[in-house]
Amino acid sequence: MKIDEVILASKSPRRRELLDQIGVVYRCVPSEKPEVLTSTIPKDVVMELSRQKASDVAEIVEDGRERLIIGSDTVVAFEDKILGKPKDEQDAFDMILMLSGKTHEVYTGVTVIYQNESQQEIHTFYECTKVFVDNLSEQNIRDYIATGEPMDKAGSYGIQGYFGKYVTGIEGDYNNVVGLPVSRLYREVKEKFSIEL
Amino acid sequence: MKIDEVILASKSPRRRELLDQIGVVYRCVPSEKPEVLTSTIPKDVVMELSRQKASDVAEIVEDGRERLIIGSDTVVAFEDKILGKPKDEQDAFDMILMLSGKTHEVYTGVTVIYQNESQQEIHTFYECTKVFVDNLSEQNIRDYIATGEPMDKAGSYGIQGYFGKYVTGIEGDYNNVVGLPVSRLYREVKEKFSIEL
Asked: What is the ipTM of this complex?
């Protein structure tokens, strides 16, 4: 089954590229509600935030038309401590130094809402990927911060950018680290809603 | 230490994008010699072909100037059988059906040649990444072939394209599957030649 409309409840260019990559036609309606957190456990945080984003957008667009709404949130976790986006360059430096030479996890929570004129179903899941980072010198870190790449990214790095040269390997879904586990999303939507993205 | 010139002995747009991604300035000089194979073992094949490409280009550009030349070759291996580029759509269909619901390996061999007016050093290595593929229906495979994406790719798929939705996870370096393990390359060049790419 195909669906009339898919909405991405995010304006992240990386998530958009991933949906484009697998050939999904969608439109973007970002949520504008402030994030409300009731947990500090990475998997719970990303699932909760993805649900808030998708639910907010579901209310905005509600008109009885059949559609899927996809909300998503990504965090980097090191020893169960959540690393969000850096506040400033010093914060970015500290985060990258923490990740250097170590293994960390990237969690993305995804909520898919199916709605039509008579019903709404909400399905939430998360995906976790292990990332192995090479040893970086302080100069490497300063050079990387000077590229400007870390400042809008959870954990202060982008695996699909310059930082790729310091990622020695991963275990799990690469696209989950970029910001949206499209393979898992495709399967979940197929299984739960019998819809082929 | 920085180096005067880096040459990529390949015209693959995916390898070029990966070097661009990590900020390497280089020029492309593809090898034009026919490939000569003396092995059927995946890791030996990719190392041998990467060495042929880099050596051929090293001869073409030889003028005493200090430079690095990077040659690279990628194959997909399923149960130690090498899958190259598909001959036609039927061949692509058979390969994708073989990979469906299974785990396979992607091998990339890399040769880096350092040369200046008085010496030449050749360094070759390979990187292997495991790739987990979802179950595809025959219709999924036909739809994928209709995108045209499989025809120029080893193993008949591109992980960075539509096929991404069928890759449930990997173990190892994602960029190695795309065609060049830039993280390993960066480290090897630093360790063997004391050069920062």
From this structure: 0.84
